[in-house]
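Office hours follow-up: a student asked to see two folded examples consecutively, so here they are.
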Amino acid sequence: MMNAQRQPGATMTREQILAALSALSDELGKRGVTGEVCRFGGTVMVLAFTARLATKDVDALFQPTQIIRELARRIADEQHLPANWLNDGVKGFVSARHETTTGNLPQFPHLRLTMPVPEYLLAMKCMAARVGGTTDEPSDVADILFLIRHLKLKSAKDVLDLVGHYYPANQISVKTQYLVEGLFEEGQI
């Protein structure tokens, strides 16, 4: 029986994310498997930095992929989450310099959580450079501002140099450059 799905644009709170990850750990344990989930984006901002209250989904890379994908679908149904609450759509933004840490993330008996180091997360957010426009469009601006302040970066050049540490210069879009420069020019930092 399918449970009611959440509405488009709905968000997941810290408590909902933790409940879903705890259930995932329990299900992995029943199979005698330990999984690993490297979380990205909004989930890191919610769980590791408490920089915001909610996120739309859990962008992640995970192993073992097929088992976790199957269990995530079941948990989505049981906990009334979107079918893709745990997704690996972030794959397109992963850098060859994929640097991760456990940081201060919660850990579970059968599920190890990791995240990009803050510098790498900032670089990823800058590469995505989503600025929103309506309430339903995602925006990376608040997260970028938070991470620039967290890392105590003082100029657009510092930020763009950091992005260049993780991604080749020819992949850094003009949109990213304008966004970062604009944040400093507008005095938001």
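And the second, which I mentioned at the end of office hours:
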Amino acid sequence: MLTRTLLTCSLLVALTARAPAQSGGQVEMANLREDVRGLTQRVGELSLRIEQLERQNGELREKNAQSYATLSQLNEAVAELKLAIRSGDEATVERASAQIRKLGDATNVAIDSLAKGMATRPVIQTTFSDNYAKEGVSYTVQKGDTLAVIAKKTGAKASDIINANKIADPSRILVGQTLFIPAAPAAK
């Protein structure tokens, strides 16, 4: 487009130089010269603008070249990520397996410890005798009480208290619990 404009200006200049010098022609000639001068000025402005745009275009190309990756670079990065994920997954599985093994070992130790503790506990009584006095009093368990202490306080036998209240585990009486205390048999 710039070349076409320059060519047109050159043609106008050549035509004005050959035009006959008549009085009416002189006015036309002056007008043509003025048009050519205006066109020449406009061509100069456009040339400056084109130079500016080319400079900006070059800067943008440099920026884009620095900020964008090629397709092969992207493919390489994706391949590296896949490899890292696979190796990371394998490492995660190994760590999880090791932790599961540790947890299993600790659980087995705890179960063995509980089993040993159960073996040393007294056998829990599941059958109870009816051979105790049917009359008696209520007693509320206090802090620090054991069946032996309660029996001593009330004058009853510990076995009668256990049978009357159907206490399966004598070591598990609770503060605030109400027990029936069979009356001690009257002396003969």
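Two things to take away from it. The longest strand covers residues 136-140. The beta strands are 136-140, 178-182.
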